[in-house]
Fold:
Amino acid sequence: GKKAAAELREELKKEVSELKTKYNKVPGLTVILIGDMAPSQIYVRNKEKSANEVGLKSEVIKYPEAVEEKTVLDKIEELNNDETVSGILVQLPLPKHIDKQKVIETITPSKDVDGFHPINQGLLMQGLPGFIPATPYGIVLLLQHFKIETTGKEAVVIGRSNIVGRPMSILLSQPGPAGNCTVTLCHSKTQNLNEHIRRADIVVAALGQPEFVKADMIKPGAVVIDVGITRVDNPSKKSGFELKGDVDFSNVSPLCSWITPVPGGAGPMTIAALLQNTLLACVRRNN
Ligand code: NDP
Structure:
């Protein structure tokens, strides 16, 4: 993930610089961060750092936890109408008093670089150009980067959220590169989950349960993409915690043909895909 994301950022850097030289355009990413949850702050900092690295203009607008919903919605409207802003992202999760769906639907679909707006999700469903949510998009780019054959394979996606699992299942089942799979989408009500996973040539684990996927669930030679990131207490670490994926990496990895680690797998690809979406948003606005 780290290696593929670094290469993708290099390509993006060239494209951003070309856009600037030829058309005097600099894509701009604006992130809204509400509250002071440590993981969200780290994600936003990483997004900002990577955006700056490829030459995008990036801005972070911070609000305290108690900010009124209207203040946030008004700011989004303002950004929708700001020609210097190509992409808008509101870092999730949001405080309880703010309606997530309302926030998502206020972002104009042409600037929705997270791909969470129902219009972009509908376009994705139909295989039409829109914005693909960054995590599943990053995984598609990762599979393509390493030329991993997906056609005709059995894929099992664990988790059906609108931001990871469900769009992932759609992408893997669509015709085209990193697609053409026969997909099973599993969730907390799935019966015989282990049997589904054991059948899979490609497993995408996005359930948020640390080390849930064990070696005895994996078919030898499978490709395993671990999306989960959970902070687990570990007093021996300076920070007091460590990050765990949804896959028991040390026992599962010897069985796999490919596997992504946590951290350093799907995470960096998610950020690279977000930058790719921001560049795309800028190019589309100016075409
Ligand atoms: P959600 O909590 O929205 O969704 C979790 C999904 O997993 C749900 O569909 C749930 O089923 C399913 N699930 C939970 N427990 C089980 C179980 N025991 N067996 C089968 N299915 C189960 O999470 P997200 O999709 O937002 O994120 C998933 C993980 O990925 C999290 O750890 C998150 O931190 C991480 N993540 C990582 C990103 C990255 O950049 N690498 C980006 C985004 C997320 P049900 O619908 O029935 O409740």
